[in-house]
Design brief:
The complex is a heterodimer of chains A (187) and B (374). In chain A, 80% of the residues lie in helices and 0% in strands. Chain A is mainly alpha-helical. Chain A has 2 domains: 103 residues, Rna Polymerase Sigma Factor, Chain: A, CATH 1.10.1740; 81 residues, Orthogonal Bundle (Arc Repressor Mutant, subunit A), CATH 1.10.10.10. The N and C termini of chain A lie far apart (62 Å). About 4% of the residues of chain A have low confidence. Chain B has 374 residues and is an alpha+beta fold. Chain B contains 12 helices and 15 strands. In chain B, β14 and β15 form a beta hairpin. In chain B, α2 packs across α3, α5 crosses α6 and α10 packs across α11. In chain B, 37% of the residues lie in helices and 24% in strands. The chains are: A mainly alpha (187), B alpha+beta (374). The interface between A and B is large, with 65 and 60 residues.
Chain lengths: 187, 374
Amino acid sequence: MTAVSDTLLLERFRAGDEQSFEQLFERHYDLVYGVLFRLTGTRAEAEDLAQDVFLKLYRQPIRHASNVAGWLYRVAVNTGYNALRANQRRYWREQATALDQPKPDSPESLAARREEQQQVRAALAKLKPRSAKLLILRESGFSYDELAGMIGVSPTSVGTLLARARKQFEEAYRTMAVDSEREEDNG
Amino acid sequence: MVKQHPDEGALMRYVDAEMGADEYRMVEQHVAHCAACRDTLQRLVSASLQAGNALEKLSPGPLERPDKRRALTALTESVTTGEQTMLEKIKNNRRTQRILIGAAAFVIVVGLFALPPVRALASDFLGLFRVQTFAFVGVDTDRLIAIFEALGEQDNLFMGEEIILEEPGEPVPVASVEDAAAQVGFTPRLPEDYGLPTEVYVTGSTHVQYILDVETLRAVMSILEIDPAALPENIDGQVFEFTIEDGILMFFDDNNDRNEHDFSILQIPSPSASYPEDTDITALGEVLLRVFGMSEREAARLAQQIDWTSTVVLPVPIEIATVREARIHGQTGLLLETLEGSSSALVWEEDGIVTLITAETSYVNLIAVGRALK
């Protein structure tokens, strides 16, 4: 049996068929959630934002429906990236005001994982928006052609942009790690 | 063996296995005999591995996997309880419409103009200006939706990265006009014969940088079928900066027995905006006019007429509001009214102060209030 295309599902939904929307949801929710989880780091926030993304599609079904998946993941990565930036700002504000407060109890392995994730996200937040979005989308498993559609560049430029993004990330991540070690030494 | 060196992008595609078998073999053969390309490849592999390993840490853990069924239930509930999108809120909410009208100036200025980064405090920045005039361009809601879609988010019209250097915060109530004046450093004008304000607030200053993202702007232009060649060169990554200083917000009760006759007056020093000296502001302004729906010819003509170093162009959604010019104390301002008459706004600049008067109804004659300011 051939799967019905996203475009056809969206057309049916726009004609009033709610089940077609559910099929689109079934098809894309996991990846949309995955992109948002990587950028936000919490299940609750990723779920809320994923809901916003699908609500946007529900309320204002896009008119240029040739690439529904591209639209969904572009909206997801933009939404997630904005949340990442906001979370980073909040994180640094809290760090600045809570230096003397004891850290909440948590199992060591969990705390270490959170700390590692925080460093990765902090490095992402330092990159140019397009670079950060490219890295997350590539990490989520999308091909160069799909990435090109999502961020609005030609497929031939994706390699160059990814090479640049990875280099920027490597530098930013290294700086974060050095800063973190220095803080530990001082602490 | 391929004599020409593959560029970095091709090597990256090779690393990511994003090329056809023939090209893959050619690159492989070339790299086997070219030390320089091997070095580049090594570097790319190393950066890719490091990025991949780090980003892998962000994947959902076993307890964080998506729960599709629960998410679909939540979505269905949200749909049936009638939560609105940003655009629907704009269309349906009177207060939002007023804010939209008031904020349009802010949106467009930060979208167009700004400052160079801190590093350029010295020499390469001269394009500082203050808002002196307001103009408008009608834009239809479908077009706004298309722009929102192209940007991938419905509540943001900016085509670039926003860096908020200073957030305005909530307006702070003060006891009197005199107290507000002492805090902000200028004395607001008050409308004669309308009594004293019932509430007075000091509004905080705002300082925002915008880094223009040409790729996003191109994507928007492509969706709107505008030739990207219209964009001036060398504008990618240029930093624009926008500053609003502390202002005074006053609420008046025009008629004591009917709340809907209330109006508010906001006065702030003319916002300043700046941008790198080599920015072709007229060309950029022309692109923006076209994004908002003007024909190529019309946009070119208007872009030449507008003094982009002192004018704020407001995009006015034509399905929501009407707009016309109004003369206040010899200055040209804009009077905006929502179509169903639920709110109105009047904005103009005079002696270095921008004044915005808003009312929840069209019963208040904003022009009369504006002219009564002394």
